[in-house]
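Second opinion, please. Please look over this fold, written as tokens:

===
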Amino acid sequence: MPTPKISFEFFPPKSLEASFKLWDTLAVLAPFQPEFVSVTYGAGGTTRALTHEAVKAIGGHFGLRVAAHLTCVDATAPETLSIAQSYAEAGVRDLVALRGDAPKGRSFEAHPGGFQSSIELVEALAKTGQYNIRVGAYPDLHPDSASMVDNVAWLKRKIDAGATAAITQFFFDAETFLRFRDACGRAGISAPIIPGILPVENWPAVYRFAQRARVEVPNALRQAFKTAMRDDRARLFATVQATSLCTTLIDEGVDHLHFYTLNAPDLTRDVCAALGIARQISLSEVA
């Protein structure tokens, strides 16, 4: 089985304890030598400053290529481009351009002076010529889409606007991604589409989030996690489930996997190891 490229997603810490947890997570996962790591924005842009700080710290301390999330939420267009420019000045040229989520309990509303969609944001960033721009993609039906045809068409518009690759929402069935990838190919999308993998640390929480995000959950998987939790085997089953999903994708030609770590390294580490991805240990770690 070919060894895939990998990347990891983290979220910025909001407390000292969370900062230590993120640093511990990076210490475990950085030796896998990811292609890049990304740092998210909170809903409504609530972690904008924290994201900026985390991006600079991760790149500086761990020497990793860092992609910063950038959204259209709660900022004017000039303010958003100013944030992007501050990343460029800090040496960060990778961005994940997203529409962004509204704060909990509210629907998305574009800022009156801001970008009205991720397409407008991508177009403006691409015009600067400074960034490698990745965007989101949705193998399951996006909460605001009427059909999968819309999902594919919207992604094509983002790629045509200047995005160089897409990272998908997590999914549970390899066929979901493969059907989406095929549909994108038929629509003329040639940019890489990187599947997003979510190792399940907490099944009840992941299941609730999947329902809100309209991610399809196979009944067999739901029952299997229920049984595994009853038998105190949830962690083992989560490792097997994520590894099996990744293996199927690799067998179908996927050469890059993006892991949503939730700032918890152990399951992602175990899945990467099961896939034959070796950690590169420095001499200082064993001295």
